[in-house]
Automatic annotation (TrEMBL):
Keywords: Cell membrane, G-protein coupled receptor, Membrane, Olfaction, Receptor, Sensory transduction, Transducer, Transmembrane, Transmembrane helix
GO-annotated cellular components: plasma membrane
GO molecular-function term, one example from the UniProt record: olfactory receptor activity
Presence of keyword Membrane: yes
Descriptive protein name: Olfactory receptor
Subcellular location: Cell membrane; Membrane
Regions crossing the membrane: 27-48, 60-78, 98-120, 140-164, 211-229, 241-261, 267-289
Membrane topology of this protein: Multi-pass membrane protein
Family listed: Belongs to the G-protein coupled receptor 1 family.
Listed SUPFAM superfamilies: Family A G protein-coupled receptor-like
Stretches assigned to the G-protein coupled receptors family 1 profile domain: 41-290
Family annotation (Pfam families): 7tm_4
Alphabetical list of InterPro entries matching this protein: GPCR_Rhodpsn, GPCR_Rhodpsn_7TM, Olfact_rcpt
Length: 314
């Protein structure tokens, strides 16, 4: 008998931030604005990369996929968050919840590994600049990205299966603003040992392997920059890595904060706020981080604005 047949619960209720009714409209407007900026910013990054032949390099290839993933996982989470802020019925079907979880988890894990791949890309660019275009060939770049998407899908499928096989026969109220793993797990009336172990193993492996790749890459980058004698080389190395280092610090810092939060009812508000920051704010911050500190992106945007202005003048 499968998990769906054993469950009497077919619909979940998402509490979101319903305990703060006076904040529903301000939060809706704030999240809608952030989501709009996220879509415009990330679509803008993708458009700039496609328009400017100068940035058709491995670094921008990975950045293009990062922007695509930001749009995807923000679009999985944010529309439902906006809906439950303005609609009385905050319900979602069991299958709908599993679908949202699957795609959200896939895109987050994929982005995690794309950021690790970008750290390796920065390592090659700084430590072996003369061999950069050979080492980071288009075929290797495509394989690294394809591997990230594939692994994200496999991990997400495993975790979604571990949830779908559980029985839900008691409360159907999810104390969260989305279909978050631990929040769903807490409602199950069956043995959750397999689900907990699957989550622990996958989460630990993914986070550890990512941090090892990132830290190793940046240790080599630091040693290489220390050996540089010219200030120009140091400045170029710093500007090459600063945006990525900022992005991974925010991304992994938020994940590690979730790991450190104690599993108790009193900590649910912090979990909800941290999850909203992770799924709503970070996708908006990434295009700002990469565009504000990136000379090529700023130059392309400036040329587009000038050409648009000239065409209107004519």
């Amino acid at each position: 008998m499968d998990g769906e047949n054993k469950s009497s619960v077919t619909t979940f209720i998402l509490l979101g931030f319903s305990e703060y009714p006076q904040l529903q409209v301000p939060l809706f407007l704030a999240f809608l604005t952030i989501y709009t900026v996220t879509l415009v910013g990330n679509l803008g990054i993708i458009a700039v990369i496609r328009i400017n032949p100068k940035v058709h390099t491995p670094m921008y290839f990975f950045l293009c996929h990062l922007s695509f993933l930001d749009i995807c996982y923000s679009s999985v989470f944010t529309p439902k968050l906006l809906e439950i802020l303005v609609v009385e019925a905050r319900s979602i079907t069991f299958r709908g919840c599993m679908v949202l979880f699957f795609f959200g988890c896939t895109f987050v894990i994929t982005e995690m590994f794309v950021l690790a791949v970008m750290a390796y890309d920065r390592f090659v660019a700084v430590c072996n600049p003369l061999l950069y275009t050979v080492a980071m060939s288009p075929k290797l770049c495509a394989l690294l990205v394809a591997g990230s998407y594939t692994w994200g899908g496999i991990c997400s499928l495993t975790l979604t299966y571990s949830l779908a096989e559980l029985s839900f026969c008691g409360s159907n109220i999810i104390n969260h603003s989305g279909c978050e793993y631990s929040a769903i797990l807490s409602l199950s009336c069956s043995d959750t040992h397999f689900s907990q172990m699957a989550c622990l193993i996958i989460s630990t492996f993914n986070e550890t392997s990512n941090l090892v790749i990132i830290l190793t890459s940046y240790i080599f980058i630091v040693f290489t920059t220390i050996k540089m004698t010219s200030s120009g080389g140091l400045h170029k190395a710093f500007s090459t890595c600063a945006s990525h280092l900022t992005a991974i610090t925010i991304f992994h810092g938020t994940i590690l904060l979730l790991y450190c939060v104690p599993n108790s009812r009193s900590s649910w508000l912090l979990v909800k706020v941290d999850t909203v920051f992770f799924t709503v704010m970070i996708p908006m911050l990434n295009p700002l981080i990469y565009s504000l500190r990136n000379k090529d992106v700023k130059e392309t945007v400036r040329k587009l604005i000038i050409s648009k202005h000239l065409s209107h003048s004519i």
